[in-house]
């Protein structure tokens, strides 16, 4: 699991910093993106083992990013964990329909995030 | 029911605008007030100030997300603004189909922006099947978006009340719906023609290459500067000579260049002028 690369996608610099710091402390390599378009660029430029993906972001939302990646044979194998404030049941269903592998809501507990990452990244 | 002062309503309005770009102008503040009051009743919160704090939390935006779902849900029905649908079906579609056939292209891309519970995109799908000869050899792409996952879920279910279908011509109701347990269920052949997606017009990614965009009675919820930005992005998303349908009373004069207002029988629509 150590040295695995995680892409953290969120338009909140506070969330990006908090999650990235914790992941780096745990030995992960971290890439970041502030919106959906940056996320797609990052996935093309770096080898990524898992994506933590927010939903409501400028330029392209997380559902759209997820759908595009899961439809692309080159990237569909990358686990996507939605990490979002959208906590209505229909939001969750929509996330799973978009192809996300797990759906976590904010405020989040880092231990839970790490546990989910561990499930997908060996 | 709880009283919400005008000052408090304005504060709620600002929070919603910052979160998703929707703007409840002074004439719509009472609608916003009613919806906030009913949501407060559901949550058991009596004090508007306490509710304001609940939707302002930076750490937990769940309640704000739920409220946005509620305030953006509007009742609609099949064949809303009938003259526009007739214009689309009888004038625009035949013209567009002829042009495409002449170019050897049998793809048609239509975007229903702010599709709510699906009545508009399914109306478009039925119109395509009714108006275009040999429709099975065409590739129709109907892309339908909304800011609320709650309405998108309902749209994908495709189950409607009698009220939602009462303006639909009977032959279409008989042909494209199944009546079961007091509800009208849209047939799979229509359902499969529509792809639903979550999108906030304020800041989502806009796809390109649309022949027609429907965005009816949605822009009324945006401020002029946001409306202008959305219209400019619609312009970029349309093919040259593509068509934009807004609500029957919505005008864009003074907001954006590049569209020609085209009067049709009983309605006006906008056509993109090639740049």
Would you mind describing this structure in some detail?
The complex is a heterodimer of chains A (122) and B (275). Helices cover 43% and strands 19% of the residues of chain A. Chain A is of the alpha/beta class. Chain A has a single domain (5-109), classed as Response regulator (Rossmann fold). Chain A has a five-stranded parallel beta sheet, sandwiched between helices. In chain A, strand 4, helix 4 and strand 5 (102-105) form a beta-alpha-beta unit. The longest helix of chain A has 13 residues, at 13-25. Chain B is an alpha/beta fold and 275 residues long. Chain B is built from eleven helices and ten strands. In chain B, the strands form two sheets. Chain B has a seven-stranded mixed beta sheet. In chain B, strands 3-5-4 form a three-stranded antiparallel beta sheet. In chain B, strand 1, helix 6 and strand 2 (139-146) form a beta-alpha-beta unit. The model of chain B has no long low-confidence stretch (mean pLDDT 91).
Précis, in short:
The complex is a heterodimer of chains A (122) and B (275). With 122 residues, chain A is α/β, with parallel strands linked by helices.
């Amino acid at each position: 699991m150590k040295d695995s690369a995680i892409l953290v996608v969120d338009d909140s610099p506070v969330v990006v910093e908090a999650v990235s710091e914790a992941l780096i402390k745990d030995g992960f390599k971290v890439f970041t993106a502030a919106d959906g378009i940056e996320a797609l660029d990052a996935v093309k430029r770096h080898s990524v083992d898992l994506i933590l993906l927010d939903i409501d972001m400028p330029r392209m939302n997380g559902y759209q990013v997820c759908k595009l990646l899961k439809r692309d044979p080159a990237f569909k194998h990358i686990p996507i964990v939605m990490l979002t404030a959208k906590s209505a049941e229909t939001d969750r269903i929509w996330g799973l329909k978009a192809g996300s592998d797990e759906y976590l809501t904010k405020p989040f507990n880092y231990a839970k995030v790490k546990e989910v990452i561990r499930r997908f990244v060996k | 029911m709880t009283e919400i002062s005008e000052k408090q309503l304005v504060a709620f309005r600002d929070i919603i605008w910052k979160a998703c770009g929707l703007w409840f102008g002074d004439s719509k503040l009472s609608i916003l007030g009613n919806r906030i009051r009913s949501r407060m009743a559901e949550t058991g919160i009596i004090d508007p100030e306490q509710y304001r704090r609940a939707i302002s939390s930076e750490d937990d935006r769940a309640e704000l997300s739920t409220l946005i779902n509620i305030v953006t849900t509007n009742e609609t029905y099949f064949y809303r603004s009938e003259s526009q649908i007739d214009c689309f079906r009888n004038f625009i579609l035949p013209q567009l189909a002829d042009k495409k056939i002449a170019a050897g292209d049998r793809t048609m891309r239509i975007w229903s922006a702010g599709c709510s519970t699906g009545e508009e995109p399914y109306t478009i799908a039925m119109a395509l099947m009714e108006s275009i000869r040999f429709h099975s050899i065409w590739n129709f792409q109907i892309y339908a978006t909304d800011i609320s996952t709650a309405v998108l879920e309902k749209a994908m279910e495709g189950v409607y009340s009698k009220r939602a279908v009462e303006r639909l011509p009977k032959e279409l109701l008989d042909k494209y719906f199944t009546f079961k347990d007091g509800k009208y269920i849209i047939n799979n052949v229509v359902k499969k023609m529509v792809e639903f997606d979550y999108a906030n017009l304020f800041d989502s990614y806009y796809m390109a290459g649309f022949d027609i965009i429907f965005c009816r009675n949605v822009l009324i919820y945006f401020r002029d500067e946001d409306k202008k930005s959305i219209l400019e992005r619609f312009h970029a998303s349309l093919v040259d000579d593509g068509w934009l349908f807004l609500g029957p009373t919505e005008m864009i004069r003074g907001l954006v260049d590049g569209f020609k207002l085209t009067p049709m029988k009983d309605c006006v629509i906008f056509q993109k002028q090639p740049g």
